[in-house]
Design a protein that fits this description.
This protein has 134 residues and is of the alpha/beta class. The protein contains three helices and six strands. It is 34% helix and 34% strand.
């Protein structure tokens, strides 16, 4: 009888330990999102996105924060891995941008990480550039 009880307690402890490991690695540290392969939750222009944040930042955060969104607008600034649309949306890319798009209308998909009050810009990261518009 004592062996059965010991085996049962040992099996229960192993199950609890396995569940704890699964929770720790499988839930808390799940893989990063692949924004490039995700479908955009919202399609919006750069100026409309900024207007939404200026009108009600909490409501805009509830709608857009950590969501995959597609932004359309003219490129007003660009560096190797950053494009700014309409001087209002800062888009950080995971790779260097090979082609120049200054003063061209483009569509960018990325994850909204919030509004920067200091620079008065909406920030996106993990961005990808879609086909340029004319």
């Amino acid at each position: 009888m004592k062996r059965k009880r010991t085996a049962f307690v040992l099996a229960a402890l192993l199950i609890v330990a396995a569940a704890g490991i699964y929770f720790y690695y499988g839930f808390l540290f799940k893989g990063a999102r692949d924004i490039a392969s995700e479908k955009a939750d919202f399609n919006i222009t750069a100026t409309k996105l900024l207007e939404a944040y200026n009108e009600d930042p909490k409501k805009a955060d509830a709608l857009y924060l950590n969501k995959t969104i597609e932004i359309t607008g003219a490129v007003t600034k660009e560096t190797d891995s950053v494009i700014t649309l309409e001087n209002t949306v800062f888009c950080l890319f995971t790779q260097k941008i090979k082609e120049k798009h200054l003063d061209h209308k483009v569509s960018v998909k990325g994850k909204c990480i919030g509004y920067d009050e200091l620079f008065q810009e909406v920030k996106l990261d993990q961005c990808t550039l879609n086909q340029p518009h004319n």
